[in-house]
């Protein structure tokens, strides 16, 4: 069984570029820039009741030499009851120039939380 995770998702709101993909699996594809991605991911986390496990940070996510948007995710274990959380990441994933390969934006959260619904399917090239 996989230990519960918490995430810190980093997005640079000043990064140029857009990506076109659905917000949720099976949805209509939308054009999303960095600010829209940050806002949309925050909304998804709130709607799914994951605010205690997912935190957002504005900062460099990598890939600054070309248009993004790009996202970086740091993965931390959820502390045992009564313990303080530490800041030692047990994993990380970057979506530098690769967001468009996801089947939906929600995959950023799903595949990194390791939830049962995280059947992280990538889009197939046409």
What can you see in these coordinates?
The chain is an alpha+beta fold and 126 residues long. It has one domain (5-80, 87-113). 17% of the residues lie in helices and 25% in strands. The protein contains 2 helices and 6 strands. The chain has helices at residues 34-47, 107-113, and strands spanning 5-11, 19-22, 29-32, 54-58, 71-77, 91-95. Strands 4-1-5-6 form a 4-stranded mixed beta sheet, with helices on one face. A hairpin with a 6-residue loop joins strand 2 (19-22) and strand 3. The protein is globular, with a radius of gyration of 14 Å.
Give me the secondary-structure topology.
Elements: E1 5-11, E2 19-22, E3 29-32, H1 34-47, E4 54-58, E5 71-77, E6 91-95, H2 107-113
Parallel strand pairs: 1-4
Antiparallel strand pairs: 1-5, 2-3, 5-6
Brief overview, please?
This protein is 17% helix and 25% strand. It is α+β, with helices and mostly antiparallel strands.
List the defining traits of the structure above.
126 residues, alpha+beta, four-stranded mixed β-sheet, two-stranded antiparallel ribbon
| Rg estimate, integer Å | 14 Å
Q: Which regions contain 5 or more consecutive residues with pLDDT less than 50?
A: 116-126
Domain count: the total is 1
Distance between the termini: 36 Å
Mean pLDDT: 88
**Total count of strands:** 6
N-to-C series of helices and strands: EEEHEEEH
* Residue share in helix: 10-25%
Q: What's the shape? A: globular
Strand content: 25-35%
Largest sheet: 4 strands, mixed
Number of helices: 2
User: Which structural class should the secondary elements be placed in?
Assistant: alpha+beta
Strand order in space, largest sheet: 4-1-5-6
